[in-house]
């Protein structure tokens, strides 16, 4: 009797699983595929290619899938669009409320959430959804490239030749920094000066 009961329970679970799959239309899986492809291109081939960082991969994909599934559910039960965007805002801020994150990483987090939201609520067909995601990806790729402006980077350093920080010796300071670092230093910002140790803390700005 116990074996028969176990078999019945297993059959009920399998039937429930099939019923769940039947409720998910092919349109849902098509949108999910477009969403995952767009997110993969954004994270792997734009974000990683530019910054070579992998620690945010889990966060990006998790937020994207979560937003897509929940927004799709809200869309099916006909909740207001305001509620969906409210959820979007909550998820955008919840993860990083008490943790510092760079502006670039926050921007990419916003983008992956936007892709998930767009893929879930768009009323157009798969071709329109693909075109919208493609526009978003192309614009991001262009902005991350050097086509529009050169990328300026910065580093904080401790510099001991304190006599060169005078405004009249700025060109000599830049030349010395370029010789020491091998970087194309364009400008500097003095943060603090320690006259007791004859050193200064500064931020150097340079192009690739």
Automatic annotation (TrEMBL):
The chain crosses the membrane at residues 28-45, 57-74, 80-96, 108-126. The keyword rRNA processing does not apply. Keywords: Membrane, Transmembrane, Transmembrane helix. The keyword Ubl conjugation does not apply. This is DUF4956 domain-containing protein. InterPro entries: DUF4956.
